[in-house]
Each structure stands twice: as structure tokens, then as C-alpha cells.
Amino acid sequence: MRLTTTVPALPVRDVVRAVEAYERTLGFHAAHLDPGGFAIVVRDDAELHLWQAADDGWRQRTPGELAESPVRSGAEDFLAGTASCRIACSDVDALHAELAPTGALHPTDAGRPAATSHGTREVAVLDLDGNLLTFVEAVVGGP
To answer: Tens of pLDDT along 68-123?
Structure first.
């Protein structure tokens, strides 16, 4: 037995709206969509799972209940937008040029992919709910 692939699962407030945004803004397409709360979006070899975090029942709990156990269902709406993932990319310059007009680039974007001290060049975007997706290209000769 061996492990083969990691598939990030990102919490979103509305899975249908999130899929539409991933298609329109990031170039993914829906491989599976259950409007009740789960989707698989794919672009090239990258696959992401989106799950709906829309439970607002926590708002009815007392401060003491929240302090004791803030997460009960695992689908609380405050979880949407709290995830991040890194996706390998063969050409972050081309991806940056593609994504710049969509408004999806992270607010700290410097107008080009960022070089890191660990041998990558990266482009960061936020999805509709604020989940962070970082597209990463290894630098030839990097660490």
C-alpha cells in the first residue's frame, strides 16, 4: 500500500456559488456538484474538494457553550474561508497574467510572482470565501 495524492478540502459558505467562482475566476471546472454541500473542481491535474460550511446554529449558543465547544457540527459557517493549500504549477508567470484581470490575486500581490527563500516562485489568490490558494513553481537550481 502506498499513498498517492493529496486532495485539499476547502470550506465554503455556498458550494454552488463557490463552484461558479472557481470556474469563472480560476479556470477550474466542476467534476462533481452536489448542491447540498459538496463539490469537486478540477483544473489540469489539480483537484480540490469544496464542502459547505453553512451551519449558523452556533449563533444561538450561550457564550459559555461557545467557549466550551465552538465547533460541534464541523460545518459552522465561521469555518468558511479559513483554509489554505498550495498547488504545483508549471508556469506561474502565465498563471499570474491569466488571473490578474479576474481580481482573484491576493491583496498583497506585487504585480508579479513572488520569489521565496525556499526555491519557489508563487502566486497567491483568495477564493470567494477567503480561502488562500498558493500556486507554486519550483525554481531551477533552487534549494
So the answer is: 777 777 778 888 999 999 999 999 999 999 999 999 999 998 889 999 999 999 99
All 3 cell numbers of residue 100? 490578474
C-alpha neighbours within 13 Å on the C-beta side of residue 131: 28
Domain ranges for the chain = 9-138
Query: Domain spanning 9-138: which superfamily?
Result: 2,3-Dihydroxybiphenyl 1,2-Dioxygenase, domain 1 (3.10.180.10)
Nearest to 36 by CA among 19, 60, 58, 24: 19
DSSP state of 67: H
Here the cell at position 111 is: 504585480
For residues 29 and 23, the answer to whether their CB atoms sit within 8 Å is yes
The model's pTM: 0.88
φ and ψ at residue 41, rounded to 5 degrees: -115, 145
Do 128 and 53 form a contact (C-beta atoms < 8 A)? no
